[in-house]
Amino acid sequence: MRIVGWTGYAWALGATAACTVTGLAMRGRFDLVNIAMVYLLAVVIVALAYSRGPAIVATVLAVATFDWLFVPPQGAFTVEDAQYLLTFAIMLAVGLIISRLKRNVRVQARAQAKLEAAAQTERVRSTLLASISHDLRTPLAVMTGASSTLAERGERLSAEEREALARSIYEQAREMSERVAKLLQMTRLEVGGIALERDWASLAEIAAAVLSRLRERLTGHRVVLELVEDLPLVRVDAALIDQVLANLLENAARYTPPGTVVRLRARREAQELVVSVEDFGPGLPPGDIERVFAKFEHGAAEARGGGMGLGLAICRAIVGLHGGRIWAEKLPLGGSAFRFTVPLDEPPAPPSEPALA
Amino acid sequence: MTTVLLVEDDPDIRRFLRSTLAAEGYRVVESPTANRGAIDAGTHKPDLAIVDLALPDYDGRELIREIRRWSSMPIVVLSARHQERTKIEALDAGADDYITKPFGVGELLARVRAALRHAARSPAGEMLVLGPAQVDLQKRRAWRDGAEVRLTPIEFRLLAHLAKHLGMVVTHRQLLAEVWGPSYVEQTHYLRIYMKQLRDKLEADPMRPRHFLTETGIGYRLVMDEET
User: In terms of pTM, does the model score above 0.90?
Assistant: First the structure.
C-alpha cells in the first residue's frame, strides 16, 4: 500500500472541524438531517481529494462528532433513534465508494499515460529508422557505385577520375562511420550503458586536444580561445566532455559561413564551470530554442548534407550525466551560443614540491 | 628490410594493411590469431608489431604482455572507438601507441614511422628540440628562446619520462608511478598541474600545445618538431 502523507489526515480533521462549526451555527434552525448532509459533504470532499485512509478517518470523525454533539442524547455516543445508524452507514458507504471510484480513475489515467508513452517510443523508433535509412543509405549508394566503377571499369578511367572516385568513397565512408558512431553513442547513452570514468581533468587541455583533432574541419573559421587563466580542475569523464566540445565546435563550423569567428570560452561562476561555444552565423532557427537538443532535429544546413541531428542530443545526455545543464542562446548581435555547465567539486590537495630558489 | 608483424583476424583489414605497408617498402608477416602472432613474433623477429585487440583465440593485451617478456619491439594496437579503458590497458600492458578504427592510411603510416623512429633512438643521449625550447636530458638543463629555463626536479623527471617514450603515448598511471611512485597512480591532478607548468615554461602557445600533447582520458605524448 502507498504511504499517504499526513496532509490527507489533517484535511480530514480540518473538514470535520469546519462542519462542526457550521453545524453548531445551524442547530435549532435546520433539521438534523441537513446537518448530516453538511458532514456528508466534508466526507465527499476528503474522499475526492485524498485516498481511502483519510476518507475513512473523515467519515469516522464526522459520524462521531455528529453523534456526540447533535444526535440526542447529546454528549453521548448512544443513539435513541435507530434511523441515525442508517445515516452513519450511508456516510461511510459514500466515503468508500468515492475513494474507490477515484482510484479507478487514477489507474485508468496511468494506463492511458503508459499507452501514450509506448506510442511516443514507436514514433521515435520510426523516425529513427527513416533517418537511418536516408542518412546511411545515401553514402552507401555512393560507395557501392563508385567502388564498382573502380573495380569493373577502372582501366577505362583516367588516373584523375580513379583518384576522384576513390576519394569520394573515402569521404563518404568517413562521414558514415561518424554517423554510425553517433548513433551507437546515443543508443548507449539512452539505455544507460555508460558509466562515467570520472577523473580530475583540465578543460584547457581537453579543449586543446579537440581543437587539434578538428583542425581540418575548422580551417575555414577563425577559432578564438578565451579560457580564464587558472581554470579550476573538474572531475569529469574527459573523453565524454571531449565529445561535447567536439560536437559543439563541429556544429558551429557546419552552420556558419566560412571566415566567421567561433569562440570557445570557459569561466568559473559560483560552484560551476560555464563553457560556451559562440558563433556569428545566421543564428538559431525561429521558435522553440530547446528543440535543437531533440534527437533527429536538423539545422537548416542539413539539406546540404550534414549530420543526423544527434550531436546536440548526445551533448545534452553527457552533460546531464555529469550533473550539469546545457542550453542555447541567441546572441544580441546575431549568432548563437551553446553553453554548458560542469559542477565544481572540492579541489584536490595539490602536490607539494619546494619552490625553486 | 623492415619487418612488420600484423596480428589481425579480419582478412579484409589484413588485406588493405598488407598492401599499404608493402607499398611503403615494409615486409609484412600476417598472423590471424594471438597464438600464431606469439609464434611469428619469435620466429620472424619483426621490427614492429601491429596488434588488433579483439582476437578470436585470446586477448590482444595478453599477447602484448607475452611479447614484452622478451622483446622491446614497438607495438601499436588497433582498437575500436570509445574504448578508452581497453586502450589504457593495452598501453599499460606494454603497447607503445594505438590507432582507433576506422583510420586512414596517413594516420597509420605516421604512427608506424614514429614507433620505428622511437625504437631506433638512443635514449637520453640527445638534445630535445621542442619549438622555441631545447632540453639537454643528460645535463638536465632547458632553454627557451636561448635563455635558460629552470625546471623543478619533478618537472624534469616528468619531462624525462615523456622523452624516454618520445612520440609515443604514456598513460597517466605510468607517468604517476614513474615520477611520483606506485602509491600515487590515482593522483591524476598532479599530472594536470605539472603538465600545465611544463607547457607554460616550454611551449610557444601553452593553450595550443604542439609538443606536450594530451591524449584525452588516456595520457600524454611528447613530440619533437620533426613529428608534428
Answer: no
